[in-house]
């Protein structure tokens, strides 16, 4: 599972050799602290009122010209001339952004009544994705479209922190205020909340459960009965409880609701399986088992839990898609279909769940994550999967977990219907 090439390129001889041979030189990502202050730039006229929100993130202002976080407010850019302000603001500072630093571009929602504004605001997307591909040194670039910076506070905190180490090239839309609540303690935002994670005995799900517990949640570790011992051990470590249940059971939603009489605040649909085969060789059973675990069970349990009122108001549902569902992948017609289905579910249900239940629905779409699942991939395919992204390496389960925790955050009520890739800006489906 270890990425030996990444360790090698981190040494002086490794750097020398890979540079001489013109090989990729991925940077070790900083996942604990960022080294430097915050630089707040603007392009075009803006009255966003961002400064107080940035001040609350705890990041200090960049004093020495080596920022670890750069925020460019381009919400006021309405024409091509003003777009030049994006170049003018970032061109002189990009080189000085610290390794593993963050660039966050802020844009406005596209105005359908003004095709000039829509054109240049859309231009920010191409700009962000291109800069993400060239910036290097473990640095990330993301675009947030927003109208109210207060509603985007949890999103800005996440994107400007080490927690978003493997999230780059993303466009995230944050709605207007409403639906979110500021936690008493930003370090323990999930205190007093119950979170259920499916498929949490191991891999990404175990990391999600651990991260949510670390943020104060009472976690329920759900996994198949065959993994009950593992699930129980994981739950004990986290001070939570285990629930042995095959999520494809027709009454899984009802059984979860019965096990949690106080209802759920956070529901993470993480359980997933692969049964790869090209379509010509794929028996119907391989097709249906993947569709059943990855999509049908998510639809069924979500419907049952919402109908039973078992997801509390202010609740968060996060489902797990995959870049295979966005880009497609040879040998994965079943898996790609199931994960694309998650995207459709999230986009359609999000506004209705918000209006009817006060619940948000979002998805994470992991790329290549270092788990048992990807360790089993043949060497050359695995190496290609690992390197073919802007950060030149695979992500870790904790990267998906922290992204999930941001979507599950009580203050993320204005983030709804989003599909956020945790893929280091994978070239697949870019
Ligand atoms: P994993 O195989 O390590 O873990 C999956 C867990 O889900 C296991 O504990 C398994 O027992 C459980 N599970 C499977 N079927 C279940 C069922 N019917 N009911 C309850 N639990 C069930 O997988 P992972 O790599 O940790 O992946 C987690 C999720 O992330 C999956 O949805 C996967 O498709 C998705 N994903 C993973 C990657 C990656 O690179 N690892 C990439 C994209 C998406």
Automatic annotation (TrEMBL):
Keywords: Oxidoreductase
EC number: 1.1.1.100
Alphabetical list of PROSITE patterns matching this protein: ADH_SHORT (PS00061)
UniProt cross-references to SUPFAM superfamilies, sorted A to Z: NAD(P)-binding Rossmann-fold domains
Molecular function terms from GO: 3-oxoacyl-[acyl-carrier-protein] reductase (NADPH) activity
Origin: domain of life: Bacteria
Domain Ketoreductase, residue spans: 193-367
Family of the protein in this entry: Belongs to the short-chain dehydrogenases/reductases (SDR) family.
Protein name as annotated: 3-oxoacyl-ACP reductase
Organism listed in the record: Streptomyces lienomycini
